[in-house]
Amino acid sequence: MGSRDWIDLARDAETGIETLRAHFEGHAYDPHWHDSYLIGYTEIGVQQFNCRRRRHDSTAGQVFLVEPGEIHDGRAPIAGGFTYSMLYLQPDWLRRELRATFDDAPSDRDPGFHANLTEDPRLTLAIAQAFRVLHGRELRLLRQTALELVLERLRVHLGWREAKPFDPRLPLVAQKARDYLHAYFYQDIGLDELASACGTDRFRLNRAFKAAYGLPPYAYLVQLRLAKARQMLAVGGQPADLASALGFADQS
């Protein structure tokens, strides 16, 4: 992070939703992914990112939407940087709440976003209100009411896709490797070990994994550990302890 960059992170204990407000100037973050649904809005500046093989430029008031597993990056293309607020919605929570709130929400499908970037002032306001009451740990009734409004405003931006344990569009070996990394992320996994667990060699695995997820296995593992660290920091974990437990050389 640059000297002018900052991050403010918290977690709602009841829902597991994480709230993040941040400011970046210049390079913000390398290609990475999350295991949550991200919904947020740009407060000031221009937030530029690549996702779904397209470049997006989110300006003040626009909403950005990213599904779990979608590779994206971030940068500030103009001086002064950008500031944004965001909610990390846990997939189980979102599926459960959508099905409880809307009668037409299918039970055998997963929610997905029509687009990564949209102009919807009512959704922007709903996200801002939810962020404020969740991040500020307001009364439970206020938090629940704000989240219900987010779901109502989010509905028009949602589609539904078939829920499958494996994505038929991706090589099976890549999906096996991903599952292995998630199961043993805290270990010092070698490429040969990973390839052996998936029944292939390291060269085929590397090619298949990068084609499927946009990152080589080692970079994916780093992002997975960072995601776990973020979750632990949000509930009061200490950087030194996390760095040691997750295999990072330092606390940065």
From TrEMBL:
Regulatory protein of the TOL plasmid xyl operons. XylS activates the xylXYZLTEGFJQKIH operon required for the degradation of toluene, m-xylene and p-xylene. Residues 175-252 form the HTH araC/xylS-type domain. Coiled coil: none annotated. GO terms for molecular function: DNA-binding transcription factor activity; sequence-specific DNA binding. The keyword Coiled coil does not apply. InterPro entries: AraC-bd, AraC_XylS_family_regulators, Homeodomain-like_sf, HTH-like, HTH_AraC. The lineage of its organism: Bacteria, Pseudomonadati, Pseudomonadota, Gammaproteobacteria, Pseudomonadales. It comes from Pseudomonas aeruginosa. This is AraC family transcriptional regulator. The keyword Transmembrane does not apply. Keywords: DNA-binding, Transcription, Transcription regulation.
